[in-house]
Amino acid sequence: MRFFKIIAVILVLLVGAYAASMYYFVDENKDFKIEKEVDYPLDKVFSQFNNLQHFTRWNNFFTSSQSIDIDYYTPYEGQGSAISYVDPKKDTNGEMFIRYENAPRSLRYQLFEDRNENPTVVDVQFKPVSAQRTKITWHVHTPKLSVLRRVENFWTEDRFAENIDKSMVNLKNVLGNKVEKDNQMASIKYDSLMVENDDSQLLLGINVSASNKKEALYKNIVMNYSKIYNYVTMDLGKRDDEFGFPVLITDADNYKDKEVSYFLGIPLSKKFGVTDNNFNFRTVNASQNYVMYYKGNYEGRIRAVQQLIQKAKKDEMRFGDIRQTFIERPVEGQEVNVKISLSVFK
To answer: Which InterPro entries does the record cross-reference, listed alphabetically (predicted)?
Structure first.
């Protein structure tokens, strides 16, 4: 009995010493600043922060968990927008609000985690460094912690900084895809033959053989695109701004055949294990291409393909596959908007 009393006294002394050290030497809350720069214009960066549906797609706090469930509340964007989240695997939940907005210069977030009634307040400032570069500054004010929990303040800043580092990688991927798509749309010149150098691409898609009868081929393309899109977005959890335009690859002259074999895929940034055997990866090597942009019914693309082949023959160039990049998603009953590329070489 005497032994247990001694142990109890020692524990009381240790807890008292710990509480005293926390009280006198550790602040009850933390204030710190983190700065980053990204190679994208201010308006595109700001729109990824003031729209919480966009924000949760790249912020590592939300993307790092497969089990998190997020609810969004109107107005969805800007001051007054809010979300709540629950993560059953991590046994955490919380709410996040945009309390203030001075577009496109600053935002104030409040984050309530678990049962803490005091929020973490984050002021984010955006400053254009140049037309294509933006500086982002986070001013973080953490909630007051009880004496026994103040030890958490030792790693709060490091944890927040690590989350921002990972989030910036995700944000750059999202903005990279978005800006690439915007630039491509802005540079389109229809029915003009051009020469372009295309970088290599990694595509996830399917190999298909289909009838080349009128309208049957395009219906088949629409159907298979839906399969790929659903797999990438629903099974793999990718968002629209995480991948590029769909690409169809086929032999240059098989538009004449009764049956057409093609590969249809969606560009992704990296390869990973695919559990569904219907889908596979295909790498498209960097190449020089003769290119035409075409808009109209799908059958009308054949004239553009013929013009590209004639140009290659006239220039005494050898040529490979035809690639059709759908600038707008293929939809049954609608006109197509495609970039048609013929890879050429000496």
So the answer is: Polyketide_cyclase/dehydratase (IPR019587), Reg_factor_effector_dom_sf (IPR011256), START-like_dom_sf (IPR023393)
